[in-house]
Amino acid sequence: MADEKRVDPATGDAITFKELSASYAKKYKKSEIKDYWEDECKPPKRERKPRVKAAKEDDAKPEPKAKAKAKAKAEPKAKAKAKAEPKAKAKAAAKSVERDPDEGLAPVKGFPSGKDAGAGALAKLKTFTKCVLAEYVWLDAKQVPRSKTMTMTSRPSKVSDLRVWNYDGSSTEQADGHNSEVLLKPRAIFNDPFRGPPHVLVMADCWNAWDDKPAIGNTRAECAANMTKYKQLDPWFGIEQEYTLMVPGKVGEKATVPLGFNKDGSAPAPQGPYYTSAGFGVAIGRPIADEHYTMCMEAGVKISGINAEVMPGQWEYQIGPCRGVEIGDHMTMARYIMLRVTEKHGVVCSIDPKPAEGDWNGAGCHTNFSTASMRAKGGYDVIIKICEAFGKVVKQHVQDYGEDNHKRLTGKHETCDINTFKYGVANRAASIRIPRDAEKDGRGYMEDRRPGANCDPYRVCNRIIITTGECMDQDIVAEGAAKHAAFVFIKPHAVYDKVKDLVKEKLSENGITIKSEGQIKAETIDKKKLIDVHYGAIAAKAVMMKPSELTVQEKAQKEFETQFGVAWSKVMEEGLVYNAMDAAKKLDITTDELGEKYDQLKKGETIIKFGGGFYCGKVDGIYVINGFYMSMRGKFTAKGTSIYYYEVEWPADKLAWSDFRGKVLGGTDPATAPGSSLRNIVYSKWEELGLQAQPDTGDNGVHASASPFEALAERCNWLRASVGRDSFGKALLASDISMKTIKDWSQDPLVEFEGGKKSLFDLMEDLDGSECLKKAAAIAAASK
Question: Which stretches make up the GS catalytic domain (predicted)?
Answer without folding.
Answer: 219-581
